[in-house]
Specification:
Strand order of the largest sheet of chain B: 7-6-5-8-9
Strand content of chain A: 15-25%
Shape of chain A: globular
Number of helices of chain B: 12
Distance between the termini of chain B: 18 Å
Shape of chain B: globular
Largest sheet of chain B: 5 strands, parallel
CATH superfamily of the largest domain in chain A: Metal-dependent hydrolases
CATH topology of the largest domain in chain B: Rossmann fold
Oligomer: heterodimer
Number of domains of chain A: 2
CATH architecture of the largest domain in chain A: Alpha-Beta Barrel
Strand content of chain B: 5-15%
Order of helices and strands of chain B: HEHEHEHEHEHEHEHEHHEHH
Number of domains of chain B: 2
Number of strands of chain B: 9
CATH superfamily of the largest domain in chain B: Aspartate/ornithine carbamoyltransferase
Largest sheet of chain A: 8 strands, mixed
Helix content of chain A: 25-40%
Helix content of chain B: 25-40%
Radius of gyration of chain B: 20 Å
């Protein structure tokens, strides 16, 4: 079984490759890549795909999705989430543990992996819980869960408020070489807030979540990461203050990594002026100054990954009063188009850097690079994405593959259409 | 009808924010016409909303606002349905959207709603055709309160432009303040917010750049034409924002010794309900400067004006 994709612009940041050429896949792995790949001996007789000048990149890797299975498959399933992923050019997703029940034991992990195998779309990497039942009290069985397939650990959505538990988690996981992923939010400072605390919340009379709720926990966990030497991955960072501390921690050589979401660099809290719950998520949309800080941090290496925090919710969960509407937005289908339009076309970062933040850099954070993911080096799994940079997509119900439609980008027209997505050389989209 | 004739341009009254100064003036002028009705010795009723179905939807406890609306509706001859959150399908877990869609199915003309969630009225308006009056949505807006406050001030001083008004207390959690800031700044009054830093967010200046914020009541008191005291809401866990009642009263209570620093004809106002002895002492609340009961009286014609102009934007039925 071989496949030859010709007439493409190859962009693989890990190999510093940006050239016109072809990709040759044999038995699901990269056999040749580059200007001369089409003349490789095994190219003869391969199934041919004409890329028509489109961009070919390693498949995108999302460190942060919620696929709601088991427990809330009315919102999303591993299959429907997988379809949203490949539609957005993602070939690997890392799924949060806040399912019902939570992923704190091997039975749940195995169920997830089994469903993902049946769906046969994007690669699915589960995160395990940091504490049993997300209660913040007892450490989960990290070694056992890692052996079952978990790539990182997080009580996402429920921050580990007990500093001693967080310390032990970071300390214990060192010998397993897996990151602890932290949703940073001091629950007392956040209170019952449901949007960013600032002049918009003051105007609307809405309860705010101050930037300090995130920053206080980022500060604590950087201290604990330094103290223990554990790997701290900071999920969906949203404030300028957090990024300042992360930049400094990295400069000091601490094992601290981070991600930002497209909605946090695309939208500010001003969107809440109409009380539209499509703009309600946690962490909340922050101020314009925070967006500027994120854009800077994307350029200077402070940020390791663009992750979606794809969080599907049903119409009922969202079409209600703002204080009680569910937190979260979907993001897989719109992530690359937003990065292309708002980061690359606006000259914040290069196309190569944007692709790197969606492929090689996230692969390294969760050590997926050790499985050859995140780059199309010869011998690596042939997970790749073909994108027409000029073709526009319109965000409507038909475009969105997720079971849910809680996107804040309804009606947006963006460049960057996913023409096709392949996992192990098998076409899963387009 | 001459082409210049004013037509009330809003379908709903969700807040003061969307109103132009001339809309505010039109509402206050209309209220003055209705005040004459309310002060009649005999029959205080006009047929202005005859055959109109008005639904009062109160999801939060309210006695005075609801009574005021209901009296206003009766004086306008409206048909009234009271939807009580405690006994309704809400207690059975019905959502606001379902409530809205079910009411809409019965074709009401006007909805008056109070709700604890900021923006709840925007949600309601997406599912209903009826005009909606916001009778308070969380800490967001309470437009009829601001209108009756403005009516009361205009009646005493003859104008709003140039008036100095201090609002004292829990600014952070107050919808009355937000509606008043919109209204008073639109009409040219000078607003000073007074309270401890935990209750007065500096962030408000981004939206209302002309307001002043002070933590020193005594310092700003002498120059004010009016003082609006807010209820110190200790029952809502305000204790986490301020140390205690004694300390609060010491710095922010309106009492006879503070009144000596105020202008002789200063207007003392309070949206109620009053915590006597806490934010204001009884001798001040009931004293010669107090307009507290005038506010209550004026609430009826102001609410009549709001409901009337929403249903009859051309105002033909002016009595």
């Amino acid at each position: 079984m071989s496949l030859l994709v010709t007439n493409v612009r190859l962009l693989d940041p890990a190999q510093k490759l940006d050239a016109k050429g072809a990709l040759l896949v044999v038995d699901g792995r990269v056999a040749a890549i580059g200007p001369d790949a089409a003349s490789h001996p095994q190219a003869a007789g391969a199934e041919k795909v004409d890329g028509q000048g489109a961009l070919l990149t390693p498949g995108f890797i999302d460190l942060h999705v919620h696929f709601r299975e088991p427990g809330q498959t009315r919102k999303e399933s591993i299959e429907t989430g997988g379809r949203a992923a490949v539609a957005g050019g993602f070939t690997a997703v890392c799924a949060m543990a806040n399912t019902k029940p939570v992923n704190d034991n091997v039975a749940i992990t195995e169920l997830m992996l089994d469903r993902a195998k049946k769906a046969d779309l994007a690669r699915y990497f589960p995160l395990g819980a940091v504490t049993k039942e997300f209660k913040g009290e007892e450490l989960a069985d990290y070694g056992t869960l890692k052996a079952a397939g978990c790539v990182a650990f997080s009580d996402d959505g429920l921050p580990v408020m007990n500093s001693a538990i967080m310390r032990r988690a970071l300390e214990y996981t060192k010998w397993l070489d897996v990151p602890i992923v932290a949703h940073e939010e001091d629950k007392d400072l956040a209170g019952k807030g449901y949007m960013h605390e600032g002049h918009v919340s003051a105007k609307l009379g809405c309860l705010g979540i101050p930037a300090a709720a995130e920053e206080a926990m980022v500060a604590r966990d950087i201290v604990l990461a330094e103290h223990t030497g554990g790997h701290l991955h900071l999920a969906h960072i949203s404030t300028a203050g957090s990024l300042r501390m992360i930049r400094e921690a990295k400069q000091r050589g601490l094992k601290v990594t981070t991600e930002v979401t497209p909605h946090h660099f695309a939208l500010s809290d001003k969107e809440l002026m109409r009380f539209d719950s499509d703009f309600k998520m946690n962490p909340p949309l922050r101020s314009e100054a925070d967006i500027q800080a994120i854009l800077e941090a994307l350029g200077d290496g402070t940020i390791d990954a663009i992750a979606t925090d794809h969080a599907p919710h049903g119409w009922d969960d969202k079409e209600c009063e703002l204080p009680i509407a569910a937190f979260g937005v979907i993001g897989l289908e719109t992530a690359f188009p937003l990065a292309l339009e708002l980061l690359v076309n606006k000259k914040v970062i290069s196309l190569e850097k944007a692709v790197s933040l969606l492929t090689w850099e996230p692969a390294k954070v969760f050590h997926l690079d050790r499985q050859g993911l995140g780059s199309l080096k010869v011998g690596a799994p042939a997970d790749f994405t073909l994108i027409d940079l000029a073709a526009k997509v319109k965000v409507d119900r038909e475009f969105i593959q997720s079971k849910s439609y809680n996107t804040p980008f309804k009606g947006w027209e963006l460049p960057g259409k996913t023409v096709g997505t392949w996992v192990s050389g098998k076409r899963v989209w387009g | 009808m001459s082409p210049e004739r004013y037509v009330f341009p809003h379908k709903h009254l969700l807040g003061i924010e969307p109103l132009e100064p001339r809309d505010i003036t039109a509402l206050l002028d209309q209220a003055r016409a209705f005040e004459e009705v309310c002060e009649r010795p005999d029959i205080k009723i006009v047929p202005a909303l005859r055959k109109k179905l008005v639904v009062n939807l109160f999801f939060e406890n309210s006695t005075r606002t609801r009574n005021s609306f209901e009296i206003a509706q009766k004086r306008l001859s409206a048909e009234i349905i009271n939807f009580d959150a405690d006994t309704s399908s809400l207690a059975k877990g019905e959502t606001l959207v379902d409530t809205a869609m079910n009411l809409e199915a019965m074709r009401p003309d006007l909805i008056v709603m109070r709700h604890s969630a900021p923006g709840a009225h925007a949600l309601l308006s997406r599912h209903m055709k009826a005009s909606i009056v916001n009778a308070g949505d969380g800490a967001h807006e309470h437009p009829t309160q601001a209108l009756l406050d403005a009516y009361t001030l205009r009646k005493k001083f003859g104008k709003l432009d140039g008036l100095k008004v201090a609002i004292v207390g829990d600014i952070r959690h107050s919808r009355v303040v937000r509606s008043n800031m919109w209204l008073l700044t639109k009409m040219g009054a000078k607003v000073t917010l007074v309270g401890p830093p935990t209750l007065v967010p500096q962030d408000l200046k981004a939206t209302w750049p002309s307001i002043e914020i002070s933590h020193d009541f005594d310092a700003v008191l002498p120059e004010q034409d009016a003082i609006m005291m807010l209820r110190a809401q200790f029952e809502r866990g305000t204790g986490a924002y301020i140390p205690g009642q004694g300390e609060y009263s010491r710095f922010f209570q309106l009492n006879p010794s503070r009144m000596k620093r105020a202008k002789k004809d200063v207007a003392v106002m309070h949206p109620g309900p009053i915590n006597r002895g806490l934010e204001i002492t009884s001798d001040v609340a009931d004293g010669p400067n107090s307009l507290v009961l005038d506010q209550v009286t004026n609430g009826v014609p102001v609410r009549m004006a709001v409901m009337f102009l929403l249903c009859h934007p051309h105002g033909e039925l002016v009595p």
